[in-house]
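Lab notebook, page 48
Experiment: co-folding of the full assembly
Goal: obtain a model of how the components sit together before planning crosslinking
Operator: M.T.
Materials (sequences as entered):
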Amino acid sequence: MLVVMEQEATPEEIERAVQAVESRGFAARPVPGGHRVAICVLHNHGSVEPSLFLGLPGVKEVIPVTRPYKLVSRESHPTDTVVRVGDACIGNGTLTLIAGPCAVESETQALTIAGLVKKAGAHMFRGGAFKPRTSPYAFQGLGEDGLKILARVRRETGLPVVTEAIDHEVFDLVEAYADVIQIGARNMQNFSLLRRAGRSSKPVLLKRGLSATIEEWLMAAEYIMEGGNTRVILCERGVRTFAHHSRNTLDLSAVPVVQKETHLPVLADPSHAAGRRSQVIPLSRAAVAVGAHGLLVEVHHQPEAALSDGAQSLYPEQFVELCGQIRPIFKIFRPDGIH
Amino acid sequence: MLVVMEQEATPEEIERAVQAVESRGFAARPVPGGHRVAICVLHNHGSVEPSLFLGLPGVKEVIPVTRPYKLVSRESHPTDTVVRVGDACIGNGTLTLIAGPCAVESETQALTIAGLVKKAGAHMFRGGAFKPRTSPYAFQGLGEDGLKILARVRRETGLPVVTEAIDHEVFDLVEAYADVIQIGARNMQNFSLLRRAGRSSKPVLLKRGLSATIEEWLMAAEYIMEGGNTRVILCERGVRTFAHHSRNTLDLSAVPVVQKETHLPVLADPSHAAGRRSQVIPLSRAAVAVGAHGLLVEVHHQPEAALSDGAQSLYPEQFVELCGQIRPIFKIFRPDGIH
Amino acid sequence: MLVVMEQEATPEEIERAVQAVESRGFAARPVPGGHRVAICVLHNHGSVEPSLFLGLPGVKEVIPVTRPYKLVSRESHPTDTVVRVGDACIGNGTLTLIAGPCAVESETQALTIAGLVKKAGAHMFRGGAFKPRTSPYAFQGLGEDGLKILARVRRETGLPVVTEAIDHEVFDLVEAYADVIQIGARNMQNFSLLRRAGRSSKPVLLKRGLSATIEEWLMAAEYIMEGGNTRVILCERGVRTFAHHSRNTLDLSAVPVVQKETHLPVLADPSHAAGRRSQVIPLSRAAVAVGAHGLLVEVHHQPEAALSDGAQSLYPEQFVELCGQIRPIFKIFRPDGIH
Amino acid sequence: MLVVMEQEATPEEIERAVQAVESRGFAARPVPGGHRVAICVLHNHGSVEPSLFLGLPGVKEVIPVTRPYKLVSRESHPTDTVVRVGDACIGNGTLTLIAGPCAVESETQALTIAGLVKKAGAHMFRGGAFKPRTSPYAFQGLGEDGLKILARVRRETGLPVVTEAIDHEVFDLVEAYADVIQIGARNMQNFSLLRRAGRSSKPVLLKRGLSATIEEWLMAAEYIMEGGNTRVILCERGVRTFAHHSRNTLDLSAVPVVQKETHLPVLADPSHAAGRRSQVIPLSRAAVAVGAHGLLVEVHHQPEAALSDGAQSLYPEQFVELCGQIRPIFKIFRPDGIH
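Observation: model returned without errors.
Model output:
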């Protein structure tokens, strides 16, 4: 951390800032520049609250230097984390496709879609039993009945299932049924949910929050890892910006940045980013090309009758087309990575 | 809702869209324009999923018209909601000041600050016992011990206390001690927490999410009201933008907009918006001038020793100065509104 | 356009709004809904100022429906525009690579880099002679000397050259030397520059503004086309968001949206979006995969000695690597599109 | 500037970075921390391109410390700049009101509005003769005829006039007629226009760009001051964010920040920020309360017939009301500041 002093800061103010640093147990090294003094803060383990120094007289700015995350950091764990789920594997150099409807609506619906996406090449099935909805009047999911349907999908197709735990209350239930537990974008900083996920034996798919920085996202993963669960999968799903031609702006630069900063695998969810079907296939191609370890894609056999997010769900034949388009892109880089 | 067709949409596509609308139980009225047809969707109660129609062939765009909220809407409840808490009153034309430290750190700290802010004119005391923190390694609050300290503050000063329930698990505990239960920005769309708050007999202070639209914020309030709790207080606390000279960008235009759309009272939190002390007093003046029903302000007697957010906490003498500056502004508009 | 009335709007207010619409020469068709009346505005050619009606008593909202652009619209011109520049061709199903340094610094520098990128497969050379710089103290480009160097690059390599006209004053000069005239992000709404570009016989590469919506961007292109110049090339280069791990957030969803809305070709500029070298190759792969008609990439043989934007410039061997990675991706979709 | 090395950077990489710093004529002081080395860059005058070092092997991050602006900086010029224009005065502790229509439409319109706003207490008149419009088909202003009308307004009312120079071409003309030359938000980084303004003898009102940081805004002012024109007035007019309940988000925290960083006066323009009439009065109160040196407000006697931006123009009686509301707020702080 760097504590930058005002140009006109007095020696007393500089001394007071140095003492404030030292009183916290850190080392302070003042560096006089041409115009002003900056104080380097050393020997801090992890992050330091900038606010400890920001308000002192004569202090102009406080600039964090050290990254606040530890367990998720590639510096602390240089090799890639690989998450195995049944026959599927995320982060080992293959391309993992997770597909299914936004919400589980019925056994017929789930089994129909699961059969179709499996045939097209999906490695896992996704579907919400508990749905976080902006409106209290919207369809909130089938609850445990939905989880039972997911279990049947797994039994009949062999596909591992990914489903969301929307809160601490339903976590045990979701944990009992799911192969991978999803934590949604709105819950990325629901810290008690993250702590609960940290105690789970199941892998956790952690979506990036709507306006989360990379650092906040990785700190959310740190909460899970700090609890003892090392099987964390990140998922970029678009961020909120001024632009409204897509529901969110898919931030694909996050993928290489995350891969540099952390050892955890990272997927992309073009369906939630786009919010409309017509952008899903091009964005899927882009996500694979940028280097994501896999995709989370919404597919519905009757999207115009879907109970939620139908507009962004691909028709099954579009998912077949998507698979046909992304495989060769992936193959270019990792000829042995298609299973 | 308006379903806008492509210019080259065929009569069959228009007919199919009309049928899709009608199959959902709504009335469809196609309006041919100069270049294209738009279909008005009528007789929908509350909001309709745009996605139901967005993916149909020939459909260019779907434009929502009706607001999705009901109970919070001023159209459904034209008179202002007034929330009484002990001797304090929010939304009745007075200016309510809620002040205190970010976190309760000790009995001495809390009582000292409470005494100071009460003397300066605060109507309620704020202080976190459970703190949502970006890092798992940061101070997380004193927990129930903090709540007990808050109870003592109330006993000794007579000030009602506001404190945050960071999750469903601690809600009962917080509810038992607090006079007003705060739901933080990161939890604005924690729907199970909102539902729990809806079953509470205590008033709820609902902060706007970091990147929440007014509509999403009011829908979060709708969750609480739908559960039966009508005592909801909104609080604007800044939104995330590209600008970084303040921690968040305080969106003061939200105050008149919210006051037009809903009957619920709305406060402003200049401390969390600014993230640094030097902006808090000017932003407080602005928030009072724009018409907010009150302020939530962080005050600490030793901010450089605070365990969280010290940089944005006012010194007690600054809070006295703040009170001195905002009272006459408020008085201009509501000569009888200062108690 | 749809004029939405307040729920409690009186018949007189509705009538007044209808008259306001008709007084402007449009047709007004009121549509009574369940809760409120909406008035459809018909027979407007192009866009209508929402503000004409937004302030009327009883009017709640005004929602634009028709797109305001005409000449750039795919609805008015369904086939793709192809821009030929020397041997290069943009928008005809090939992938066009435009590469070179941020700024022309010397004849040696430009010729060296041009030779390297040509050999690697670039179809055009880019380099700024006039540089728009945030600071008046930063290097502003070589001016006409830079243009002469570009002319020599074209003579010696055969590569057409792209360079920016930063203002109206230098436009004639740039036009005399350049094969394609670039209009930068900061100038996207410099309307006199756009009008001048509209009178040019040279193709114009129009970058998207830092916070421009797709509609504003296409309206900027409309300015150029309205002046008579139909050879407009769009270029997505990232938008400003809260995220700072890249300089701007490359909005790849803009590519399919623009391709649906307009017949003009669209490139991507991963270098300016990323602002750092390490993201350029992955983002280039993504941009090609999403379907961009080409790329604008910064390359420098000595980036650490570059006078501007060295951090985002690829080393020549990295550009070779980039070409090797993107060609097979492109080839998958357009087997005959690699020239 | 601080060059932060990777944790695993080798001594050779650190040495190479030190040499890169020194080869540019700066001093380099490596500071070894607990985990990594950071190199302080000293003796740089003004800003240094981060990109010079960002791409070097072993360099993780480059953090600017010194502000890049000089002439506009309060550090270099501690006392407030006061801009006198006729009888009006901006920045001397009074509150300056600049009011008038968005565009000059006719002599009658301008004189009518000018008479009304003068009577209500405005100190200067605003009105556009050249209008920057998103659409080439929208009303572009009366041009020189509009300027002549402004001259007549000044003659008849004594009010100095503020009007926009939308480009370099019309600058001479605008300069000949205007008392204050406005540079609009879209032109904030039109550097040739800024340079031209720097050579003008008239004061310049510089609006903040739609997505400009404070630093970029002040650097734009630096361009003008660097040319020799010290009479620069800043104007906050809202920034583009995800929020759409107002046209732009008025960033009032910018006012105290700017006042701390620079000696130049700063106004607020609530009309362009809001984009709708109903928010203008509350935001005006807030802007005065936050400490702005004055306001720029749109007023029209027949807003529903205005040729541009009618929806945000106040009715004359509303402007009277606005004046009545803001004066006492201002008076609280500066009892002698109302002229």
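Interpretation: The CA atoms of residues 88 and 187 of chain B lie 26 Å apart.
Next step: discuss with group before ordering constructs.
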